[in-house]
Amino acid sequence: MGALIVRCGMGAVKAATARRVRSGVTNFTSCEGVSRGARVPALVLACKGDRRAGGRANLVVGCQRSVTEGKQPFELKTVALAAFGPTLLFATGEGAILPMIPLVAADQGAGLGALGLIAAMIMVGELVGDLPSGALVHRLGERTAMILASLVSIAGLLGCYFSTNPWALGASVFLVGLATAVFALARHAFITTSVPLRFRARALSVLGGLFRAGYFIGPFVSSLVLAISPDKRVVFLVHIGFAVATLLLLLCTGDLSGADDAGDRQTHDGLLSTMTRHRGVLLRMGTCAALLGGLRASRNVVLPVVAVAAGLPPSATALIIGIAGGVDFALSYSSGQIMDRWGRLWAAAPSMTGLAIGHVLLFVVSDVPTFAAIAILLGLANGTSSGIIMTLGADLAPHPGPAQFLGAWRFTGDFGQAAGPLIISGLTAVAGVAVAGVGMGVLGFLGAGLLLRYTPRYVPKRPALTAER
Length: 469
Fold this sequence. Notes:
disordered C terminus, Growth Hormone, Chain: A, alpha+beta, 7% strand, 4-stranded antiparallel sheet, transport, Putative MFS family arabinose efflux permease
């Protein structure tokens, strides 16, 4: 639907509301399917503004004709091949190599200290690549950027396969991390520009769920391949196979994105100006994203540590963590339904609170039943957060041209995911796992408070009643 930002006095509509308000007749200067200057019935779909900003507000106005006439119903399957298929393939390949990177490095003579560093290079690559990937996706477009990321990933994986020393392996893994950052941002921007707002959270929740599914399936694929070949490096060829399949699928899929053409892209703000312009949002909501990302990542680290500290059998530990992961994955689509129906806050705040409570209660773990209860609680909380960081980023991003903002936004979430395990490990080493859990829980409650404070300010409460970008 064509949308137009118009200026309106504050007396017409109260600021910061998202109620549907029927206007009389509005003079449009640009709206899809409406002649320039035509006077047509209009519908005010959202109002954004601040009473302190000169007493004026930005009204997002939609053409009522385009809302009610000739509009084809949207279905998620229309973007399945273009976004969901490549995501599952790429994530499965990456999931296949992640457990094997330290083992390959050990075979090449890396010490214990270097093993962790080399394994972390894929996350380091993602962090370094987040910001410049926004500019790249902004310039090339989402589909082209995903194709380029697949090619760069293949190059990095070939470097991993043919590496003969740990440093060459680490550099190649870093290159794969850079490609992952570009691919992740491109698919995020693709959904942002392709899917109507009322379906956005469900689409991004499915996207997040598929990424988790790929990480779950990947290790099983690599184990099957290693049962045939004793060479651990063969897992890099597995990822190459999935990357090639991703590339072919992208080449065979039409560009469904609503991205701008090359001429329009040149008129948008650059990376630094985008970050400066939206520094308030990135600081406040970005802190929320970092805290949520940190709690989600620390959950993966702290559960095995708690099981070891409690002396639980390894078989029971693995089974319970697997069940909790299944609960997490099963809630992926439900998370999107909650966000699209009741608003982003109804998924974000309970999820953050649940993760905080689960971390605080880690000290009660003493046997298998208590460990299972806490693990499933954390799985439930994490499942209801599926896609929330991507959805908030898509809601907050400027339109048109969201890619550069999304690059900065993804950096905040990825930074939290990188910092969370480090914080939990440091606190565990200093004061024990129970204190570490309480410390992360306090950060979680802080994050929930920030979400309650800032989400209503920046994100509409009921997406179904706001304009479709």
